[in-house]
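Q: Hi! Curious about what ornithine decarboxylase looks like structurally. Here's the sequence.
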Amino acid sequence: VEVLKSRVKAEMTREAQLPEVHTESIDQMLRAHLASFNPESEDAEAENAFYVADLGEVYRQHLRWKALLPRIEPFFAMKCNPDPMVMRLLASLGAGFDCASKNEIQSVLEMGVDPTRIIYANPCKQNSFVKYAYANNVRMMTFDNAEELHKIKRFHPTAQLVLRILTDDSKSLCKLGLKFGAPLDTTAFLLRTAQELGLDVIGVSFHVGSGCFDANAFGEAVIRARRVFDQAKDYGFDFKFLDVGGGFPSAHITEGITFEKVATILGSTVDALFGPDVRVIAEPGRYYVGSAFTLATQVIARRTILRNETEALVAAQSEHPAHMYYINDGMYGSFNCIMFDHQACEPKVLLKDGGYTYQQRLTSEPHGWASVWGPTCDSIDCVSPKSSLPLMETGDWLYFDNMGAYTITAASQFNGFRRSEILYTTTEPEVSLHF
Ligand code: PLP
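A: Let's find out. The predicted structure is below.
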């Protein structure tokens, strides 16, 4: 009884510790937080960079997915942003999860998600992680090489295996094919090996690359998958599972590749090539969270680049930055996406001369070229080498929108800087029902 009591208490404390989900707009959230900020205050926390996460945006993306790709079950690629509130929301909406490690699997299971809603989508796994999946009934997992098949035979002989094939990722920002995916001239050998080992291969997966900018890549990849489905019959397999991976654009991408274009091509190709008895899943990451997070940062220091008159003239003509602004989140924190995810992050003015300017263009203010830097002592820590900004003072604020994907998830604490905290809101009232 005592053990149970302490468990219930721990559970209640955990529940009680859930952060508050506000119902204001992002604008109102930013404004309220900055209004309470007093530069003279002793509260050092108040000047830290912070995120506003709109869970309503995640919810809208889920509804959009269901409307445009009703046949394809989304398994959120949590590596993209394992934020506990996002995860809880998606779990309660019935999404599955793409996990890449033991810790990721564990955190999904701890939310009470059934192991059948997890795909362990990392083709090269540590032995102990495979054992953990086995012990916890997580059966679906990907592979792309024969060695992995032998490992799985040893540690998880009842796994439901998904053969990850190589597809054309040349039209993507992050070319995952450099590391993963079986070329089509190796799939026969892999299927034969699986057959000889008595393993259960249930289907095919692929990833067109993260940050894909050509919707046709999805259609072409599905055609390749069909070839492997047909080939599998020669080795005694009757595939009934297709995983179309990630690479879906975030909601703020409205030109070039859009989710609508991907859904039209992908949905119709899947329907044309695969009967209704084939279960189709996807592993969207940035699609869900990219546009849901806005980051506010304070200008903590400024350096005016001093030049003599001739240099100044040359600099002005060639538009060299005249100021360097230092902000309190950087490349080693949220802006690691610049290095790892090939993103360009554009600063916008949030608070200047005490005036609040979210989503306002400061057209009356003269703009000049400036570079924006993170807070660490490393010179690689550059957020933007050249941005057009009005003259900012120390204590002013800049913001960056569309900061939800591959940002905070890989942020380090290099130089002792903490990860930026997150304030939650929802612009869709229904979301509150999920917490
Ligand atoms: N699935 C796998 C196996 C991945 O490696 C990734 C990203 O690296 C994703 C899904 C998510 O990709 P995206 O965020 O582009 O949707």
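A: A fun detail: The mean pLDDT is 93.
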